[in-house]
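Please, structure for the following, as tokens.
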Amino acid sequence: MYENKIILISGGTGSFGKQMLKSLIKTKAREIRIFSRDEKKQEDLRRSIKDKRVNYIIGDVRDYSSTLSSTRNVDYVFQAAALKQVPTCEFFPMEAYKTNVIGTSNLIDASIHNNVKKIVVLSTDKAVYPINAMGISKAMMEKVAIAKAREISAKKINCSICVTRYGNVMFSRGSLIPFLINKIKKNEELTLTDPNMSRFLMSLEDSVNLVNEAFFKGKNGDTYIQKSPAARIDNIAKALLKIFNKKNKIKIIGPRHGEKLHESLCTSEEMSKAINQKKYFRIPADLRNINYDTHNQKNDLFKSKEPYSSNSTKILNINELVSLFKTQRDIII
């Protein structure tokens, strides 16, 4: 499907964007557009990936005219532009709203206007039972994407919108593992919030595979979730110390602003209608209109199911984490 197509990655200089770009340049795509607002990151990426099919566009998803011009003649869009640091979003919630909600709405509207055929929007486990500004903004972003999927279905517009929902992506910029590795190498004390805190773990390759699964198989309005293992953060730190053969002290500092003890990738209500697809869950959207009296069939009743959470999935022990981390090319000992 990528052959001879024009593809846009918004937030294309981020961890996912760069991994997706590396995947796409192996295809026969005609053009790959990297859309972001950081010229330094674009210049670094331009120097590291030399391919004439890659075009770099400075712009911001918050600006509709910027999204409109960048999506002209585009076939497919991957929306990865986001503010995603939990404490930062807690202190600047309106900035999270502008980028994550308004920015996504702008990009979808511009894509529909320019006849884009498929849009995949990236979300997070923090959008499930959200308690922080980042998660709330991502949950609202999902609602915007599904509402627009419902609209294009009703209007019979030739476009499809899917959502993908992630756990923690290992070695992504600003995440826990690079933070700990940096401290380990400097022989500094490792600061952890709560030793019992658990998080889902995904690789960058997993993130691309999940997006491709939604892109190739997803129907309009679908949300895709990858089944993922999880780990306690104290075991993540201990596994890294074992890999580097170090004995840095660990200090518990308590949760940061807006943090949860455990995360969820699916609510219990979503799990009641989730379609099990081996490595993934596919959650179809309710695309009925608001005039419920006009529908001949009733919607499926909720079935009692547990949410899919980081404390109820497979929890990796220290040795399993060591083995997993050693498979990641980002770890340099």
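The longest strand covers residues 118-124. The two ends are 39 Å apart (CA to CA).
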